[in-house]
Amino acid sequence: MSAPESSQTEKTVAQVAREFQFTRNPRLGALINYYPWLLLGVFAFDLILFGKIAEASWTQPARYSSYTALVIAAIFYYLLARLTPKKLTVLWERDALRASAAEFIAFLAETQAQLNHRASKLLSLVATIIGLLVFFALPDLPEHSLQAYARLFLFRAPFVFLSWYLIGAVVWRLFAVGQLIDQLPRRFTFNVQRTHPDQCGGLAPLGELSASNAIVLLAPGVYMVGGFLFFGNDPKTVLLLIIGVIFEAVALTAIFVVPLLAVRNEMLRQRELHYLEFAKLAHGVEENARVLFSASQLPTGAEIQNHFQIVQGLRQLNQENRDFPTLPFRAASIALRLTAPQALTLLTGVGVERFIPSWVTTFISMLGK
User: Fold this and answer.
1) Percent of the chain with pLDDT strictly greater than 90
2) Are strands 189-190 and 97-98 parallel, antiparallel or unpaired?
3) Is residue 62 part of a domain?
4) Cα-flanking dihedrals φ and ψ of residue 278, to 5°?
5) Which residue has better confidence, 10 or 346?
């Protein structure tokens, strides 16, 4: 942020960030925001009404993990939608992104337009068609009456199609955020602050944004990988899981790995510039020492003291260059952010039969009778 920026301009930037629309369609935004609660309600309703019909299915650990994975993904998407304008604004306010207020406001407007591009609707439609195919390709439920199956189908089908429609909208925005992070080093000049308290050169908000973007994909990804353990006997499901895992790997590379590599390359370039600056300063100090101590007249005490102060400052600068951050996150922090939700997803599946008393599942089965 440049020095002559007025408070009025800063207020304008804050207002634009506050009015930022991650999802411009209010109905679609409301569906995404309340999806975790809808999901939990469907889970409970499904258990109570159809516990007897799907009794064998509900005791499979993967079933619990699937609901947990979707809830975690929806919650982190909700957070991502609110973090995106805030984190970008923090970067600008820290002067980590060197841009005028007008340039930054234009960038936010372009980002909002990209997130709400018409192509997101097309992707949602394609995802709904895929969901329809997946719904009919999954293994059949246990033996039950035709009437019960019809009730279960009519209840679950609208929710499944809605879920896949939202998945299309969410996936588009995940790729848009990844593209946004990838373009930042080319759009703006980074100001990596070597002594910033976040130990990431002031770019920690960018790492947090990347992690939130990745977690939305990782939670369902862990469930699909675990699905091989629970659904390994059904060829159709295994094929669907393989396709899903391949998509997850490609998508994660596109929205997380590639953007962070672009940011890292820019930070490495900044470090090289600092190394060149240090080399020039060191050469100047060396020349000054050669002239100072090779003169016929001995240097005064003040000159010697001044020279050693310069050398001491040069040593401190060299130490700062050695500690120059080259990633917008700390390894321990990012590892915790990425693994904790996945552990929760797996534990809810693997440990559900061990930690939930048998009378709970018996009671659910009785409700379904």
Assistant:
1) 17
2) antiparallel
3) yes
4) -65, -40
5) 346
Rounded to whole angstroms, what are the CA distances from 90 to 153, 224, 266, 286, 333?
A: 48, 35, 19, 41, 19
Domain that holds residue 255: 7-265+327-367
Q: What are phi and psi of 139, to 5 degrees?
A: -60, 150
Residue 278 in domain: no
pTM: 0.77
pLDDT at 364 over 50: no
Residue 271 located in a structural domain: no
> Residue 211's closest CA among 263, 260, 254, 266?
260
Q: Is 138 left (phi over 0), alpha (psi -120 to 50) or beta?
A: beta
Rounded Cα distance between 67 and 39, Å, is 7
Condensed to tens digits (0 to 9), the pLDDT of residues 72-108 reads: 788 888 889 988 999 999 999 988 888 888 899 999 9
**Residue 108 in contact with residue 87, Cβ under 8 Å?**
no
Q: Give the DSSP per-residue string, 151-216.
A: HHHHHHHHHHHHHHHHHHHHHHHHHHHHHHHHHHHHHSEE---TT-TTSSTT-HHHHHHHHHHHHH
Sign of CA dihedral 257, 263, 265, 271: negative
Q: Identify whether 334 is part of a domain.
A: yes
| CA distances for 324 relative to 271, 321, 327, 335, angstroms | 7, 5, 9, 21
